[in-house]
Structures are given as structure tokens and as C-alpha cells.
Amino acid sequence: MVFLNGQFLPLEEARVPVLDRGFIFGDGVYELVPVYSRVAFRLEEHLARLERSLHETRIRNPYSRPQWSDILYRVVDAQPFEDQGVYFQITRGVARRDHSFPKDAQPTVFMMSNPLVTPPVEAVQNGVAAVSAQDYRWLRCDIKSISLIGNCLLRQLSSEAGAAETILLRDGKLTEASASNVFLVKQGVILSPPKTNLILPGITYDVVLELARAGGMPLELREVAEAELRGADEIWLTSSSKEVIAVVSLDSRPVGAGRPGPLFARMHALYQDFKQKVMRAGKREAISA
Length: 289
Hints:
By secondary structure, this protein is an alpha+beta fold. Helix content is 29%, strand content 28%. The strands form two sheets. Strands 7, 8, 9, 10, 11, 12, 13, 14 and 15 form a nine-stranded mixed beta sheet that branches. The longest helix is centred in the last third of the chain and has 16 residues, at 262-277.
């Protein structure tokens, strides 16, 4: 069962008019909320990010946070699986094709849920390969826009290379990956670019930062030069579905020793412990040292 414009109905019955601006222009935003044991993880943070994306694109938010929560849990409860990834998007609505915003269009709201697929044990133990590419996307990557053709083209590069991700560089600096945030380790220090308009503010990114700080792991948020990326001892990818995964090969060259490093092992253990104690606990808890 999915949700579409106020109705709960089977996926095969969901229909959107061809003049919807999401179809015509990619004029919309989206969220993906991980659900563990049927409880949405950090729903308030995801809804805050959604509200920001809607505000920045000037799309009217059709629901309050309690209403969003109610819709999400009705979709979750209708699924047979415990761990889920709830995807929802809001477009500006249906209107004649004109680049200017329509004055009276009603936002189109769609929500569905699928099983949450996390990395297999082999990927965690052995790490994954990645390739690099120039980040040619637009300058508002902080908006979670449904206009993802740039991300798709960049992800296809790694797909065709048999790699898990494409790590992106802009003006000689690391930004993120096609569908992940990126961390690296150099001489025992965890490095990652800070949140800017060039990077999507990841919820898992925030969790990793909190776990690192609580665990007393050296951490620096700053610009990361391409040379630092290529000379890193460890590289990690983070996202709701990837959780935390180690990159052991970049552009067919080994990262560090060519296997997941010691700080990755520690962070992965911290993340899994947090996942069991907090994500599956059905409540929002702050991380404390």
C-alpha cells in the first residue's frame, strides 16, 4: 500500500497526471526515512530537512509534522517487513507547462515503503571499490531535490566500473559521493567536508559525527583537498542504507592497506551498537560521552 494525495491504495493503482511539475520539470523534493523494528529513526530530523527543502524551493508544505508522522506510520504498518526505507516526495503539483511557479497548484504528495537493505557481511568485512569524478551537479546540493539526473549519471560511472560509489570532487576539493557522504582518515584523524550548499546534509553523517565525538575519536570538519583523499589511510561512505562502509580501492588503486582500517572497524562497531540500543529502542536518545 502507498499514499498518494490523501489516499491509501495499492501501488499499481497510484496515478499522477503527466502535467505534474515533478514529471515535467523535476520540480519537487523528497526524503528517505529508515525504519528499524517498525520505528522511524530520527523522524524529527528528517522532517526538519524536508521542511528546509520545501522552504528553499518555495513549495507549500501540505502537512504538519504530526500529520506526516501519522501518514508514515500508516504506510509502515501496512508492510510485512520490520526494517523499512520510507520514501516520500512532494512536487509543486499539476499545472500547464510554464517555468514560472503556478499560483494555484496543489502539491502532489506520494509515499511508499520498501525493505531496508543494508550492506552484506562480505562488503563490511572486505570493503568496497569506488571511482572518482568531477562534481558537475548544480550549486544547491543541500536541497534534497528529485532532480537527480546528475547523481544518476555520476553513479552510473561506478556501476559500469563494477564499483559501489562515485566520489565527487569540485575545484580540487572533496564534496560527497553520488548517493553518500564521505569521510576519510589520515594519521588517526577523521576528516570530512562541513555542510555547505554543495553537500546534502545527511542524517547518518550526523550520527557518525556524534559517535566519533562521544568515542573521543579525533575529528576535523574542513575542506578536504583531492590529494588528501587520494593519500588517505581510510575512506568511508555513509548513508541510511549503506550505514558506514569502507572504501578499499579508489580508481583501481588501494586505499591505505587495501582493506578496512582500524578506525573503520571501531566506528562500524559503535554504529551497530547504537543501532541495536537506540535505533531499535523505539525512542530518540542523544549520544553522550
